[in-house]
Amino acid sequence: MTKTELLVGPFNRVEGDLEVRLEIADGAVQAAYANSPLFRGFEIMLQGRDPRDALTLTPRICGICSISQSAAAAAALADAAGVKPTEQGALAAAVLHGVENLADHTTHFALFFMPDFARAAYEGRGWHAEVRERFLATKGSSARALVEARARLMHITGTLGGKWPHTLAIQPAGVTKAPDARDRVRIMSAVRGFRRFLDSDFFGAPVEEFAALKAPSDLAAWNTGSAGLFLRIAEDLNLDAVGQGPRRYLSYGAYPLASGRTTKAGIWRDGEVRPLDPAAIAEHLSSVWMLGEKAHPFDGMTLPDEDMDPSSYSWCKAPRLSGESAEVGALARGVVDGVPLLAALAEEGGVRARIVGRLHEIARTQLWLEEWAQALDPEARFMGDFELPSRGDGTGLVEAARGSLGHWVRIEGGRIANYQIIAPTTWNFSPRDENSQPGPLEAALAGAPVEDGATEPIMVQHIVRSFDPCMVCTVH
Amino acid sequence: MSQIETFYDVMRKQGITRRSFMKYCSLTASALGLGPAFVPKIAHAMETKQRTPVIWVNGLECTCCSESFIRGAHPLAKDVVLSMISLDYSHVLMAAAGHAAEAAFEEAIAEHKGNYILAVEGNPPLNEDGMFCINAGKPFVEQLRHAAEGAKAVIAWGACASYGCVQAAKPNPTQATPIHKVITDKPIIRIPGCPPIAEVMTGVITYMLTFDRLPELDRQGRPAMFYGQRIHDKCYRRPHFDAGQFVEQWDDEYARKGYCLYKVGCKGPTTYNACSTVRWNEGTSFPIQSGHGCIGCSEDGFWDQGSFYNRVTDITQFGVEANADQVGMAAAGVVGGGVAIHAAVSALKSAQKKTQTQVSENEEA
What we know:
- The structure holds two protein chains of two kinds.
- Chain A is of the alpha+beta class.
- Chain A has one domain: Cytochrome-c3 Hydrogenase, chain B (Orthogonal Bundle), CATH 1.10.645.10.
- Chain A has 18 helices and 17 strands.
- Chain A has helices at 42-46, 54-57, 66-81, 87-113, 128-135, 141-153, 155-161, 181-202, 207-211, 216-220, 225-237, 330-337, 340-343, 351-375, 424-428, 440-445, 458-466, 471-475; strands at residues 3-8, 19-25, 28-35, 170-171, 174-175, 249-251, 256-257, 260-261, 266-269, 272-274, 281-284, 290-291, 303-304, 318-321, 392-400, 403-412, 415-422.
- In chain A, strands 1-2-3 form a three-stranded antiparallel β-sheet. In chain A, strands 6-9-10 form a three-stranded antiparallel β-sheet, covered by helices on one side. In chain A, strands 15-16-17 form a three-stranded antiparallel β-sheet.
- In chain A, β7 and β8 form a beta hairpin.
- In chain B, β6 (151-157), α8 and β7 (188-191) form a beta-alpha-beta unit.
- Chain B has a five-stranded parallel β-sheet, with helices on both faces.
- The interface between A and B is large, with 80 and 80 residues.
């Protein structure tokens, strides 16, 4: 048995930079080490600033999911101030956030994930020609249709948020923009416009039908649209059997409305959902180029190790819940929420399950958006009063497209004393912790097949992208 | 590649029709503030001139510039420009990965040496020998220097490449550095903003590709056609500013009435950008229209000018007439519509005088 090492990266069509070191033997990955090589130091910059400036600063962590960052910052400040957004303010924020998540999911699928199946390595497969026609990078017909449909959907972030990316409208007590009756009609028509794309091209059937799928066996019967194409590929390449993560799923619960969160919060392990205790979260630093000890985010510090200790290998901290790694994302949200199709895929937990989780959430989000846009009431108040305390703590937990996102702020003397952020990919692509437990991606890569002499094992590419990583958020 | 390849050839190969091509030329002309007479000129240039390659690299950034570019712009303009640049190298969008991507990068640099435009998104961190941003095992700053060597001009996308932006906010933990401190021997055109407006990005790049020269720049190296006026100058809430009608609190009665956001921190009066005219997401809106003040994201060091929710106190910025004059002259030179522009500038000057007295009255009140 010969053991070799392979350094894979940089990965393109991944937001930000990523490098993975693989130990390979017997034609398969034995161990993987994920390195996030981009560090900017947001948590350091936030210290000493006016707490409100977090609303402007933190979205700049990421140009793809800036609304998620903005929603988390607003939630953390609201928590510190002890206020809640007005009912309609929360609804408008949910519309903004839902639009971004929908755009993110569909973009990931069409521009980042599917083009890999157009590679020459798959020539001769029954579906190869169709994938090339639909998804070849920057040229595919479906990819183009999506880019256009998405730009129109983004008119909603224009109307409600002024601009996208880096929308500013979400505040602790609501949103700055009170849509009038005309705005509401515009929003509804943009949402309907996106449905036309989903129904005709993406699912090839009404979104309700995909949202209604109950069991993994139903997936084999789904033949239409881009979704059907993926499901055929998944069956042919056995994508259900590769890339299995830790099979512990975390969700903070998506879209907080006045009536409660739209999906449930919790942690799924060993077949059941348990309540989530955010106090049990700690970030480990034993494999990270950071100084200090493992800590809960309220006590966490960000002190880059300028010597880059060779026993560490990433800038990404390793968040753990009660000492365990957890996978986050659309699949995790669906599993924790008890969606039958996804709960049934929880044990499978591989590449196919993650993509189906996202496809299913695309369908659900479209339906939510239609309902929320309808419920916007131009007469109501979209912003309440709030005053930040000169001293206090706040936690903001939201669900970004890629999974659970948390902001923890400590205010002293009217200024930010400490600010810590755990992004979705921080969970998913975390390095090993103090017990040498690998992060979810590292676990998912173990066992992946590697062709003889390959410098870019193709299954590794599929597994990495199945998480929809956002590396700029990961380390921030 | 034995014969010269024109932009038009490239577009045809990408399946763009003649009709769309002509529509694109007229969209571009209007985005650049050029009259209908320029449409055939643009078309002619694109049909006959050799295509200028573009290589797009990413440093410390958040990809918001790419995102703005591919999501916001008019689908046709975006499609055309994308088809022109994606042929060469773009980390975010291209098909190749890993080693193949590195090879594509080197190949593009070698093949088009001395002839390509380098578009830079993000900036290099210099602390710890550049170790905070590593690409293919090497610090990004090395890739940047290497790519700049053979470039004929450099575009600095966004506030990151232009000024350092958020990662350079105090205390700038990674020593993120704007690219002009690293590339000192090439013309650099700055397109600041966080991110820049998509139409501004496509407009500038098309101008450069079509006319094979830099557009007229202001003293900060920004294209005068888009950065010649303050947000405030063309803001639709400006009449409320002039009338002393301000939003005092979020969603108060005055916010509903669309009063001026100056008192809740709007930086429109000190920010040069095209948001209030071009607007965002295909002309839908811009931050002030959504009830949030401008944060001044196209200005140098905007992260460290006090809170975004405090009012602008640097009133000297109002009515700096020499500046407005220079900008007006530059704009006139570019667009050839001198009379109209100059008239507009004069109108602005008188508005500014009025403004200045108004503000001081408000301050005293």
